[in-house]
Fold this protein.
Amino acid sequence: MSYDLIVYAAKLDPNPIIVWMKRLDEYDRLKFEIHPGVEFELGLSGFCPIKVTVPGRWPFSSAQSYISGFEMSVDDFDFESHFDLKNGDVEAKREELSAEGLDLEHWEHFKSQIFISFRPNNRFEARLSFLSAAILTEELGGLCVDPQTGVTLDQATVFSWATAQVRQNDLDIQDKNLFSHPFDGWK
């Protein structure tokens, strides 16, 4: 079963890949590199491969690299279609959504949606997915939604939430023998 995250973005420029990878590197001692053929733009769809390098502990072991990643798609976001505001009593629907606590003026600014989907049976996928969703939310001026829990996070709260998810995942997988694929070059 997969776990999904959605980032609603106000903009896709500037291209976030360099900052995204740099911020992943800053999070902990792992090093990350996205496949050189990935172009972050509308229409991106499919597996987003990321090389993960675990530093060695000299003199006991050398660095090891693995291939990981997640499914990702970048699509247009149509505010009116998303909230069904094209048909019927639009003003009543807007009032209802506002009464539910949605800041419709904020949502109207979003032009793109980024879907991230991962399976938590790989050693690095959850870490990469939660942190990537948080970084992209911050860098692209967006909101992050976790459909499994119904949580919506803004730029001020998303990174602390993501790091908490990573810490919990690290505890959950501690005694599990999850697989990881050795990196043997970009294909």
Remarks:
- The two ends are 26 Å apart (CA to CA).
- The chain has a mean pLDDT of 91.
- The chain has one domain: 3-175.
- The first helix runs from residue 17 to 27.
